[in-house]
């Protein structure tokens, strides 16, 4: 019914920048909150950033001042602009969206396929 496709992952050096993109498609009636999570090997998944339909944002303390989340409701797309990257930012990044589907008008959370971000020192 709904798919989230991520792009923009890759390998960068410490101090560099990278932008992740996540586009939702399918039987979408409305998208509520969207966000980005990340998970590094041996660590728990953590919320990196979240954004409301109206543009309200919240960030993990570890990325405040370095990462920026944004969205375009008309395009059903959310971005994560990452700057001043550190090796500890290395992880698989997953986008997520709370979607009201046209199919039964049900509310569900959907996830992207994951994007590997590797920051070298």
Question: What does this protein structure show overall?
Answer:
With 121 residues, the chain is mainly beta. 0% of the residues lie in helices and 61% in strands. The protein contains no helices and 11 strands. The strands form 2 sheets. Strands 2, 4, 5, 6, 9, 10 and 11 form a 7-stranded mixed beta sheet that branches. Strands 1-3-8-7 form a 4-stranded antiparallel beta sheet, with no helix packed on it. Strand 9 and strand 10 form a beta hairpin. It starts with a strand and ends with a strand. 30% of the residues are buried. The model has no long low-confidence stretch (mean pLDDT 96).
Helix and strand content put the structural class at mainly beta
- Unreliable stretches (pLDDT < 50, length at least 5) are none
Overall geometry:
elongated
Count of DSSP-assigned helices: 0
Helix content: under 10%
The CA-CA distance between the termini, in Å, is 41 Å
Order of helices and strands: EEEEEEEEEEE
For the largest beta-sheet, the strand count, sense and barrel status come to: 7 strands, mixed
Overall pLDDT score: 96
């Amino acid at each position: 019914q709904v798919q989230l496709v991520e792009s923009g992952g890759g390998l960068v050096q410490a101090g560099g920048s990278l932008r992740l993109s996540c586009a939702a498609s399918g039987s979408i009636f409305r998208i509520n909150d969207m966000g980005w999570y990340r998970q590094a090997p041996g660590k728990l998944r953590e919320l990196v950033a979240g954004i409301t339909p109206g543009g309200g944002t919240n960030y993990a303390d570890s990325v405040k001042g370095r990462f920026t989340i944004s969205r375009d409701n008309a395009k059903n797309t959310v971005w994560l602009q990452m700057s001043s990257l550190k090796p500890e930012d290395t992880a698989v990044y997953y986008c997520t969206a709370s979607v009201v589907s046209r199919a039964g008008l049900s509310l569900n959370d959907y996830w992207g396929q994951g994007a590997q971000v590797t920051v070298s020192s």
